[in-house]
Amino acid sequence: MASLKVPANVPLPEEDAEQLQKAFKGWGTNEGMIISILAHRNATQRSFIRAVYAANYDKDLLKELDKELSGDFERAVMLWTFTPPERDAYLAKESTKMFTKDNWVLVEIACTRSALELLSAKQTYQARYKTSLEEDVAYHTSGDIRKLLLPLVSTFRYDGNEVNMTLARSEAKILHKKIEEKAYADDDLIRILTTRSKAQIGATLNHFNNSFGTSITKFLKEDSGNEYVQLLKAVIKCFTYPEKYFEKVLRQAINKLGTDEWGLTRVVTTRAEVDMERIKEEYLRRNSVPLDRAIAKDTHGDYEDILLALLGHGHA
Amino acid sequence: MASLKVPANVPLPEEDAEQLQKAFKGWGTNEGMIISILAHRNATQRSFIRAVYAANYDKDLLKELDKELSGDFERAVMLWTFTPPERDAYLAKESTKMFTKDNWVLVEIACTRSALELLSAKQTYQARYKTSLEEDVAYHTSGDIRKLLLPLVSTFRYDGNEVNMTLARSEAKILHKKIEEKAYADDDLIRILTTRSKAQIGATLNHFNNSFGTSITKFLKEDSGNEYVQLLKAVIKCFTYPEKYFEKVLRQAINKLGTDEWGLTRVVTTRAEVDMERIKEEYLRRNSVPLDRAIAKDTHGDYEDILLALLGHGHA
């Protein structure tokens, strides 16, 4: 469930655009106004506001925000104001660049979005950066990591719920054999995880658990030292328990000395309209502190305000 | 979230009582009518119907149901028609009797209900059976199992959300030490699990996980052979992941040769008004088959119909 709060009576996009334009004007920027509008509109409403802003003021709202804001607050506002495919394309692009390389973000985007959402992010990626996500991932990775990540971002997975139990049984056996041999980058193992539907992978992993008495991630735990195995675990976590995957990203971002604002902003902006309520629940359960309180302790100012607004605080 | 579906316009209790009275009359019983009424009314509405039935027809609705119905269907209708405290008292009583002894059910009732719900079940128990739950548990158990179960059903736990992190840290250390020594029935270990608030136990177990790199249940897994350790694991599971605990009870009930109807009926009737939607979600995730389909495959007739109605099927 989403944490985003949209008011019962949403102002017309024209009114929102006008208020935003006023917020930029004059001496200083009215950050509170920006938050009170953008952090309480859904993706469709935000894109209407951008369209009306462009038509009425002949300016790109995103460029205005870029000009007026700065730091972590700017990054949060920008990421949030994007449409989901633009945001994913942007995050994926960062993740394939030399200094912002992040294989985990690629796994996250490839495995927690639906097939159509991933496709749509890849189309936006091409339109915007004039390259494909596939070629950038292939170029910037190597070895086993490329062997896993490339098909992961390439496949247009079947999204249906049907499950073939015979197949699940036989592929669970393959996975078990390969993992016992510590052949974590085996062709078949990668084929199963990168091409089967999420429902089918779920069935295979359930069979694994039923037949071998432990979940596959527990088998992998012993070897969790190297990046490849950790990515493999992240893939499985994203498929089976996305809310726990995101809880962990948030926990690590918040507990890190100095806070990892990129991770924090990314999870809050990408999940506020999707499943943030569930992630909050997991966060409380795993940390015995509500997520909003943990964020309020670690952040401040406008940046804190927008994160809390996206978590469901404040008037809507 | 509850799976129970109540119609937008609920008939008056007088009308429901009249329909039920008609369903009992004449040649044969109208089971469909009983389901269509009782399985779509919440606890308050059901008790109004019982009160009106007693007033208008001078008969106890529960006794009428007992007379008219039989088998698994009867048990499901009876358990469902009870108020939650009556139902818990009834289940607890069964669990302390010689031939229906079930320590797991006692753990389930003691650990997944709020302090007030447990108290209320114990008051009903006393009013109904003229003994206390505590004396019956004490009398019918012994050794380590009594050492764990008796305080578990006795304590009126604090239900607040506040958490003492210093205490969590020190008690996590105690738990770790005792578990490493395999002193699973240690006084301190039992004291912590049977007297601390659920929020505080959650914090302690989170600290355990953070400090020792694995959850406490994984430590216990190796020794899962004996009943005491299994009960200890059930206690922890009920506190931390009740929806997974109930998923497992359902999975085992359904997968059992011949189906364990008692377990199935118990979980469906006790959780339909509480968190059955979450349990259904976990069931699908863990079994790759929706719970309603698994139940439909394993049961039939009126029994199947009432279970599915309580899971949210049918007109409401």
UniProtKB/TrEMBL annotation, chains A, B:
Q: PROSITE patterns annotated for this entry?
A: ANNEXIN_1 (PS00223), ANNEXIN_2 (PS51897)
Q: One Pfam family, short name please?
A: Annexin
Q: Which InterPro entries does the annotation name?
A: Annexin, Annexin_repeat, Annexin_repeat_CS, Annexin_sf, AnnexinD_plant
Any keyword Ribonucleoprotein?
no
Keyword terms: Acetylation, Annexin, Calcium, Calcium/phospholipid-binding, Metal-binding, Repeat
Q: Which domain of life is it from?
A: Eukaryota
**Which family would the database say this protein is a member of?**
Belongs to the annexin (TC 1.A.31.1) family. Belongs to the annexin family.
The domain section of the record reads: A pair of annexin repeats may form one binding site for calcium and phospholipid.
Protein known as: Annexin
Organism of origin is Camelina sativa
